Amino acid sequence: MDILTNLLSLLFLPLGTSILIIALGKHRKKYAPIVAFMSAIGALSLSYILLKNLPESVHYSWEWLAFGDSKFYIGILLDNIGATMLAMVSIVALCIVTFSIGYMSDDAAKGRFFAGVAFFMFSMTGIILADNLIMIFLFWELVGFSSYLLIGHYFQKEEAKSASQKAFIVNRIGDFGFLIGIILTYWQFGTTNIELLSIQSGIDPSLMSTFIGFLLICGFIGKSAQFPLHVWLPDAMAGPTPVSALIHAATMVAAGIYLLIRIDFILTSQVLLFIAYSGTFVALFAGFCAFAQDDIKRILAYSTLSQLGYMAAIFGMGYSGIALFHLITHAFFKALLFLGAGAVIHACHHEQSIFKMGGLFKKMPITSITFIIGTLALCGVYGFSGFYSKDSILIAANDYNSTLFYFLVFGAFMTAGYMGRLIWIVFFGKANSEAASSAHEVSAVMTVPLILLSGFAIFVGLNAYWPFGLGASIVSDLDHLHHLSGYKEIHKWVLILGSAAWIVGLGVSLIFYGKGSSEDRLQLKFPKVFAFLKGRLWVDELYQYYVNHIQKPVAEFLSFVDEVILRGIIVRGGAGLVGVLGVGFRLLQVGKINNYVLWFFVGLLLFWLYGIDLF
Amino acid sequence: MTIGINEFIIVSSLLFLIGFLGVILRRNTIIIFMSIELMLNAVNLALVAFSRYNNTMDGSIFVFFIMTVAAAEVAVGLAIIVMIYRQRQTILVNELNQLKG
Amino acid sequence: MMYSHLLFSTIWIPFICGLIFLVSVKDVKTLGARLLGLCGGVLPFVFAWILYFKYDASLLEAYNFELILPTGLESLGIFLHLGLNGISLPLFILSATVGLSAIVYALFSNAERLNLYVGLLFIMFSGLMGTFASVDLFFFYFFHEFALIPTFIMIMIWGGVARHAVALEMTIYLTLGALLSLIGLIALYQQSGAEAFNMIALKDALLEQPISEVLQNNIFALLFFGFGILVSLFPFHTWAPKGYGAAPTGAAMLHAGVLKKFGLYGLLQIAIPFLPAGSEAWGFWLLLLGLGNILVIGLVTLAQKDLKQMIGYSSVMHMGYAFIGLGTFSILGAGGVLLLLVAHGLSVALLFLLSTCIYKRFSTFNMDEMGGLGQIAPNLSAFFALAILASIGLPGFANFWGEFIIFTALGESESTRWVLYLAALGIIISAVYGLRAVGNIVFGVAKESVIQANTASKVGDMNPIEKFSATVLLGSLLLIGVYPKIFSDYSNKTLQNIYSDTSLLLNDEYVGDFKLERDTEYE
Question: What does the pLDDT read at residue A462?
Fold first, then answer.
């Protein structure tokens, strides 16, 4: 199989799967899981063959559309960064699809679910393989569509309805900027092809523009749920848990970071600075928010936000390789955590509040152990994958700006804190509800993916051992770090701080919250602090206020203007005016011939006067 | 005293004015009708006078046409008035105000 | 020559079918009538695609499949002159597609006096095919009126609430618009001194001797506002939502989907290339009023509670993109407008079709009273959600390319970028109202009374006819969305030809001095 066939089949296999599942009709329910599973295996093996044979990078391009002198291309670009993403996405997707077979076993609309997941895989692969910004935008919207579809899976629920709409619309707001950014890039550089862009910006750096850069990162802000467009991600947890794992933790939200890595050469230093600071802010802000949540999935969602903040921050500091590194490690352990949460939720009969769980460790040992492995990886415990990436982030931050460094270290404390809170309350102590006490370990089809992913969560940080030379940009960035002056000192210092962070975080949360508590002690002891955290800076409320008190009245006012003033007064009024004139002229028609004759002569007189140029 | 073109114009204007006032002021359709004839004849008079004054025959020819048309008009007009009278039992125009808007 | 007659037959076949239905068919439900109806719907569609495959893009100056028949009005320069070029071909196929879908749906519907309904629909269809196949301006206009009149009759007979007032309002508005544009066309003909009243002769005459700038401005104003009223240009749009709200499905599909495109087609094919100075003088108004369509009407759409009204307003809103696309006066912008016209025609027809299907399930158009369609009719829900997403510009559907190309064209020159920033807000607005409609209709739990009513009347999920009609439209949207070259290559050639004489005059700004185009694919 040559590379092109391989690439195309990799791209279109999921699309074909999606169409096949829809075409199954009545047999959807029975065959959808197995079809999706085979397709995920197929995609993984195609990726394997592809990565094995992949030269440095491949690039294909075809004309898609042309008007006048403007041509738009569709193309495939697979370089080392894309290959790394592709490997991660294929593996995570296989694990999650497998898990879904168990998780969704009693769902009536399995066909829709698996078709949606397959379609998502198609769009995500499209983003990874796209060679130009227009094509990225295209698949960017398509992942948004699949996310909409899957968040709205339980469409009868009010929550799913509003969450799916919110996700799509908030993303559209980001895409608004992104789209304008792409168009301006096109006219500025004459192309949107990523390779040509990098050449162009290298030749003539004066073409780079901060304005365009800010517009382009709007896409990232929307998709990766950065402040102030972060509001959709926690709500998106209304979808089925495997979806949260695949789309809203591991892959789609990371696509924003992937976009940044793809276009880092046309972002000016002001844009990077902004990304660094806003990323740090999100890392902290989301960490705080996580403390006030009681839904296990929402806690993980805020944790995802916070980790995306880390990735953005390190990207802004100029280390795109390390951002990619953290993206990959995060994808594995966060998918693991979400699937673990899914297993817990499944076992507890769709109970999601952590205060109604408790004591699950004994009942669900495999889930619990894998979940704890995921947590340790997330907290950056030495030896787990998260350690390697977070460690390099902190070292780089220290080199960049000591304020950001301390903020990010503080963020690490918080990560351990809220994850500790979750672990102690959910898995230890005693069961706090009927559902939790009757929970038992989930079936093998769900535990096997968990075990697989926990393997990755432990070992994927050892990037030196990645096959096929994946992650070359990571290696180069790490090398750069290792050759910083005083690296040894900083490394020691970061190691101490990092370890202190997770030890203190987990320890304090154990002491403060206790094992398996049934209520939030923070809420009891410091209600004001809790309320503040719960308020999440009232961004949601602000938007709600805008929608209800600004947008809606304006829309209704304009509708009123349109209906009453424009249609009623002007259009209908025009008709009315003619009518009134008619009534007026009617008065002249007195019905007496004598008068008519008089008028006739007056008319003649006027003509005559006109004729002799009197006026 | 010779009768010049001015006198003809004055007479024909007077005749026309009488006819015009008749049309405007009188109510009886027959009289209005006669006033119209008066106006036509005023025009005829003027035409003949100008014809003579200019030494051309155009005006006189025109007069013949007007006289034939007037005759036809009388025939049609009187018939209409008779029909109106049969239908409405009146020929006073202030009672014939069907045109009132 | 054979293909020219094929082109002509796409006009007279529906016309004859219409006459037969009007005059001699008593019961549409008989097999013969249905077969006749199907033939009348399918044949033009098939012929249109045959013509597509026989289209020869190398004929630059002339039109393809030209057919000139005498009419007895030769002294006025009027012939029955048919032909297709790269601009009219996509719209011609659009018209055949929407016509097929509307007629099949109408044939199997339960309207009262169905023979009359189908007959009028056929007449309208024949007019539509004629409009886009005419090279002669008299027939271009004539066929438009030919299609317009059945619309009024259909609203009067089968319309919804307040149909008489609405039909009257629409009649006056559209007649006024048509009249203005007719005056403009005649003025153009008369001033140009062309030998015949058709597009080719006009172009030749104007190339030889352009008319003065003042005259151009005045004639363009007539054409702009005349055609603008026909396309519901802000603020002359008020007839559109009400009219579509009251019109029966078939009429709404054909009018909103195809007939409305007449105005923009006129601007694209006649006004802008023939009157470059005039269009430049009015360019700012094109942009400004187009923005009015997008932003003002976009927000008005947000406030709608009635599904059909919402679709009507959204269709008005999307026309704004077309106006601002025309306002760029570039080949890119014109190409985007053309794609948008086809895409919008298909998607708005699809939405009107589906809104009727939805009405059958809920017996109301009020979106606040709906909910849970996903439970009652999953396939219909899927079609509806896809149709809405297509109309708000999801990639993969044709609308995306239309909007995207227009936005790109706006970005070309510094002077129109402000329009880009404002117009792109439209993608957010349309997402809000579109998804709200999907949310209100598809999501949620169905009311008990609705489920019972549906069980009683045995209205389940979509029936095969509904599926067929919707699939024809959705499939075309997907086809163009995935492979836009299907039309863009032909259109591009024609646009380059007819805009090349004028665009040099207009685009003094040249973007960058480097060109980065790869002529060869590399690996």
Answer: 85
| Interface touch A589/B100, C-beta < 8 Å | yes
A463 and A582 inside one domain: no
Cβ neighbors of C185 (< 8 A, separation 6 or more) are C137, C141, C223, C270
Q: Which of A64, A68, A189, A210 is nearest to C511 (CA)?
A: A189
Residue A71 in domain: no
pLDDT of residue C378: 87
Residue B84 lies in a domain: yes
Q: Does any domain span residue A336?
A: yes
Q: Give yes or no: residues A436 and A578 share one domain.
A: no
- d(C-alpha A518, C-alpha A42), whole Å: 45
pLDDT at C304 over 50: yes
CATH number at residue B64: 1.10.287.3510
What is the count of structural domains for chain B? 1
Which tens digit of pLDDT belongs to each residue from A270-317?
A: 999 999 999 999 999 998 888 888 888 999 999 999 999 999 999 999
Q: Looking at the structure, do residues A491 and A561 belong to the same domain, yes or no?
A: no
A439 lies in the same domain as A362: yes
CB proximity A350 to B under 8 Å: no
Q: What residues in A contact C332, CB-CB < 8 Å?
A: 67-68, 70
Q: Is residue B101 one of the residues assigned to a domain?
A: no
Interface A–C counts its CB contacts (< 8 A) at: 162
Determine, for residues B99 and A588 on separate chains, whether the beta-carbon distance falls below 8 Å. no
> Does A588 contact B101 at a Cβ distance shorter than 8 Å?
yes
Q: Give the residue from chain A lying closest to C335, CA to CA.
A: A67
Domain membership of residue B23 as a residue range: 5-88
Residues A522-547 as b or e (16 or more Cβ within 10 Å = b):
bbeeeeeebeebbebeeebeebeeee
Contact B93 A593 (CB under 8 A): yes
Closest in A591, A597, A598 to B99, CB measured:
A591
Instruction: Please give the residue range of the domain that contains residue A596.
Output: 542-611
| Smallest CA–CA distance from A563 into chain C, residue | C238
Whether chains B and C touch (3+ CB pairs under 8 A) is answered by no
Name chain A contacts of C514, Cβ cutoff 8 Å. Answer: 190
Same domain, A501 and A550: no
Torsion angle of the four alpha carbons C498, C500, C506, C510, in this order, in degrees rounded to the nearest 10: 150
ipTM of the complex: 0.90
Query: Measured between alpha carbons, how far is B39 from B47 in angstroms, rounded to an integer?
Result: 12
Residue A118: band (very low, low, confident or very high) from pLDDT cuts 50, 70, 90? very high
Q: Which of B35, B94, B95 to mutate to test the interface with A (most CBs of A within 10 A)?
A: B94
pLDDT recorded at residue A214: 92
Chains B, A in contact, 3 or more Cβ pairs below 8 Å: yes
Residue A369 distance to chain C (closest CA, Å): 38
Give the closest residue to A200 by CA, choosing from B54, B44, C72, C512. C512
More confident residue, A585 or C350: C350
Q: How many structural domains compose chain A?
A: 2
**Per the domain annotation, does A333 fall within a domain?**
yes
Does the pLDDT of residue A59 top 60, yes or no?
Answer: yes
Q: Given a cut of 60, is residue C520 above it in pLDDT?
A: no
A507 and A584 fall within a common domain? no
- Nearest-angstrom CA–CA distance, A499 and C382: 51
Q: CA distances (Å), C445 to each of A185, C191, C371, C372, C376, in order?
A: 45, 64, 6, 4, 9
Which of A162, A229, A562, A570 is the best substitution to test chain C (most C C-beta atoms within 10 A)? A562
Residue C519, pLDDT > 70, answer no
Q: Where are the domains of chain C?
A: 2-505
How much is the pLDDT for C28? 80
Same domain membership, residue A520 and residue A463: yes
Instruction: Give the per-residue pLDDT at C123.
Output: 93
Helix and strand counts by DSSP (H, E) for chain C: 24, 2
Domain annotation covers residue A591: yes
For residue B63, tell me if it sits in a domain.
yes
Asked if A520 and A581 sit in the same domain, the reply is no
Tell me whether residue B72 is in a domain: yes
Judging contacts by C-beta atoms under 8 Å, the chain A residues touching residue B95 are none
Asked if A597 lies within 8 A of B23 by C-beta distance, the reply is yes
pLDDT per residue over B16-72, tens digit each?
A: 999 989 988 888 889 988 999 999 999 999 999 999 888 888 889 999 999 999 999
